[in-house]
Amino acid sequence: MFRLRVTPGIQLKLLETSEAKPLYALVERNRARLREWLPWVDQTRSSEDVRAFILRVLEQYHSNLGPQAGVWVDGVLGGTVGCHPIDWPNRNCSLGYWLDGAHEGKGVITRCCAALADYAFDELKLHRLEIRCGTGNLKSCAIPQRLGFTREGVAKGAEWVNDRWVDLVVWGMLDDEWRAHRNSGARH
Ligand SMILES: CC(C)(COP(=O)(O)OP(=O)(O)OC[C@H]1O[C@@H](n2cnc3c(N)ncnc32)[C@H](O)[C@@H]1OP(=O)(O)O)[C@@H](O)C(=O)NCCC(=O)NCCS
How many CB atoms lie within 10 A of CB 158? Predict the structure, then answer.
């Protein structure tokens, strides 16, 4: 079972179907801010929809295509962070995340992504991680930037979010770059 201790107060744990209701309650509470950047929010209308999502990501994990985890802050579910299905022939994976507004701006997701990058490069032996964020999503773009990812370019009109095409900044990190970044003493 996938579980990572990020800091004493922050833990990542593979999502479970029993968490569908609290996760849906979080989506409801954060709907307005999440729907601005995440394409699935408007289609998520019940805890059954969240349960179906959790079943899909459990299948993903058990097929060795990477974990999608709940972010637990002081023992309370506060969001998710995880892998889009791993591209094994190229050992590539893209990360995604969102967090309850109550925990925003405290470095939670930066630290979660750093822990997930350690796991992806050290345990899974991936070669490349990618993070894609809307060009206007400054809070999201700040995360890969802070973690030393390279801003490789902009994929124009790459994602349909509700009623508009969003340009996505592509941020990349290779395994040897991550080790060099970590050895440089960077703290998150
Ligand atoms: C994007 C999102 C996940 C960021 O989550 P977060 O936990 O607030 O992000 P961070 O970990 O990077 O927090 C950074 C902030 O914490 C502060 N911080 C405090 N301690 C910190 C530490 N030790 N390390 C890093 N940042 C720290 C930073 O100064 C920064 O504040 P600022 O934004 O005022 O500059 C969140 O805003 C969100 O859910 N947005 C809506 C959904 C979304 O856009 N998802 C991403 C789609 S690509």
Answer: 14
For tokens 């309370």, name the residue. 76
Edge-to-edge strand order for the sheet containing 76-83?
3-7, 10-14, 68-73, 76-83, 92-99, 128-134, 164-174, 150-161
| Number of structural domains found in the chain | 1
159 within some domain: yes
Check residues 183 and 122 and name the one with the higher pLDDT: 122
Q: Is the CB of 133 under 6 A from ligand 1?
A: yes
User: What spacing in Å lies between the alpha carbon of 73 and ligand 1's midpoint?
Assistant: 14
**Residue 110 within a domain:** yes
pLDDT digits (tens, 9 = 90+) for 64-103: 999 999 999 999 999 999 999 999 999 999 999 999 999 9
Q: Is residue 152 part of a domain?
A: yes
CA–chain centroid gap for 106, Å, is 16
